[in-house]
User: Fold this.
Amino acid sequence: MNSIKKKPTFVIAVTGINAIDSPGPGVAVIRAIRDCKDFETRIIGLSYESLEPGLYMHDLIDKSYQIPYPSAGTDSLWERLEYIHKKEHLQLIIPNFDAELFNFIKLENQLKLNGIATYLPDLKQLESRDKVKLLDFGKNHGFYVPEDYIIHEFKELKKAVDDFEFPMVIKGKFYDAVIVNSTDQAEKAFFKIQSKWGLPVIVQKFIKGTEINIAALGDGKGGAISIVPMRKLYITDKGKAWAGVTLHDESLIALARKFIAETRWRGGCELEIMLSPDGKPYIMEVNPRFPAWIYLTAAAGHNQPAALVKLAFGQKLEPFGEYEVGKIFIRYAWDLITDINEFHKISGSGEL
Amino acid sequence: MCILPLLNNQGILKKLKLNEKNELNLIMEKQRYERPFIVKLNAGLMNKFGTRAENQPVTHIESVSIKGLLKEFGSPLFVISEQKIRRNYQNALRIFKTRYPKIQFAWSYKTNYMNAVCRIFHQEGSWAEVVSGFEYDKAIGNGVPGNKIIFNGPDKSDNDLIKAASNQSLIHIDHYDELYSLIRLSEERNLKPRVAIRVNMDTGIYPKWDRFGFNFENGQAWNALTRILSNSHLELVGIHCHIGTFMLSPEAYKIAARNLCELAWSAKERFGIMIQYIDLGGGFPSINTLKGAYLPGSDTVPSLDQFADAITDVILGYGFKQDELPLLILESGRALIDDAGYLLGTVLATKRLSDGRRATIMDFGLNSLFTSLWYEHKISPAQKMSDQTEEMIMFGPLCMNIDIVRESITMPMLQKGDQVVVHSVGAYNMTQWMQFITLRPNIVLIDTENNTHIIRKAENLAYLEQLEQLPEHLK
Amino acid sequence: MRVRKNIAANEEGFLFNPTTGDSFSTNSIGVEIISLLKKDISLRDIVDELYEKYDVDRALLERDVEDFSLQLKEFSILE
Ligand SMILES: Cc1ncc(COP(=O)(O)O)c(C=O)c1O
Assistant:
């Protein structure tokens, strides 16, 4: 009988389709959504640059549009989305970049008024896990977070360098992290990161251990729909997981469940954990969106992106049960072939 | 004879003309010109949907035509909207009044001390906040009663102090030297000055403004209060702080309000004196984008409501009895005036730099637009232009390398003679501007009925030289 | 001075230089100038032709066309 009932078709726009060597999660999110048999989709890709590979993956993405860089602000973004919405009748947008989330969250109500759903944390949640505030966050909620100094001027660096032992980590406000082994290196890294990302610069205690990432989906009421931990098996020189395996570790799942419960997180997120040799899980960073390896969750039986789609359309979901432990992903590079005309088209008209 | 311009979809201008025999003639005119333009496409290139293109033309301020303003008053030209000032003021007052029973604004003169501007604020009910003898005299000249002038800042001469004390002005003491001077003068002349102290503190923001006033954390502020409260000449009426300018954190005001309340509470407990007011200074941001900020100010600047919530929640919840609640004074400057000010200007020239970048040279620069050191000012073209935009660096007219209005801005293809509008320039420019290389331009006020008034004339050579004196041997 | 043989601008204003692999975007008057240059028309004649067509100051047009041709040379579109 089910087969007679026509499946709904959702028009879903997805950002972060830059599946390059340090990939955005968009393509993986789309792949997971396409796997879901409960609904049909028309996928709209939203890109910032003309060489984002997703633009040219016509079997995954039905149509793509360029959108303004986050720094252009919500007015420009809304203007562009309105144009796209007129043509495509968007029903859901899944943003996948840290830097753009602020704008999409700000536009949440306006989007809703126009019939476009999102499923995002609120601004308070977004800010609470900001790098600059993570230590306070940890203290307030009882999580291990490495000690850090938030440095506003060069002369404060000395205090941090005196206080922590080498190696230590120098981090930018938005991106970048350098492990340094001497005062000299610390100073160099400070200046390099300052010039790129501005102040403050974060100096963080180095934590040795095993890197574990956890992808999780919260329902906004404190409940976790899915939690899937992954141990990185191979790490690129940019610190990205190139291969990873799903794990079963109750303490990690408990940690993520607590995070979701305390923040009442809505939407996808990734906890970057360092498991120290004495077994303490330190939260190194919280990414407020799905990770690039999110397809592994679908492969392991927890299709988090598809679940997000259902939640966004108001369906009530029970938390997933078991996931498959020992599922591995291995990222690989693939040369997609296209024609210069396609490049011209997206660069010139902003649509492909 | 009448001519009706029509623009067809190829952008070709056609005019329908009625000839002498009243027949309609169609005359083909030349097409609108746009400079030829070519860019290399590369992977890192910003997509053209990617930049904040400021290409929506702004042709009027209130309902006065910009073209007309420039024609009448010359270029460049500062324009101030009286309507906007009044709206900003009334809005701010409403926001605070609906949350707290006793509110008083004091216009921060340094932000913009054109007399016309000050008087608008005073008409609305603002007191004056001044930081020098010169500003003090200006406030008196604007008819502000002495007891409604707040005298801040580290620079008050003995004469200033005597004058302010005699006028019952509110003297906000900045340092011990001033406190001792004031005590000495009061004893000598039997004055009874009304005073407050300025307090500095750590509100978790950076940079910490600890150079003004007495420090809260190390007990200096309390010591100064004790010193005042035990002196029979000084009347302690308030406590003041100003934690910084363009503050983006309502949280910081919570801390400031709490600290001032704590001092007030201690004064009440230990000396039985309830101070009359708490003055939280200014510092609320305007809708401008700070240099280096990733997101535009229009999205990130917290609303006045958020600041008002932060401040009034703390004071109302501190435990004062309803009838002893202190008056809350605010010295907000830029938040009330910035977006009421515009700078109009004209393109002097355009060129291509050796690295291929486009450069546009304006007839205003750092000399008149001091705030371009801090802000990425929003700039709009003042006439309709084609949709083609390009990235450019915008220079001022000075012969100095640092004279840059915007390091990078995407605008329509400007050419010589095109006019632009710089937005939100009402705060600090008309006081910090420099007479350097060129003369300062007219400032025009658009009143609430859309009449224009020059409120400061453009400078001329005679004005500038009137204070100069030539030694005999150089005549 | 002429446009390299294998370069052409399409209507949307895109150019591809097969020798260097560079792509360019130009506006419609740019397309016009490039196609006139392809026909071996001199810059002076191009200015004449454009002046007839567009509402522009002649000196400005001359300057802009010259600057444009300098850019074409820098980009190796002209040889
Ligand atoms: C004591 C005092 N009050 C008020 C102001 C006005 O500040 P804002 O324009 O940031 O509101 C200033 C400015 O520096 C100030 O020093």
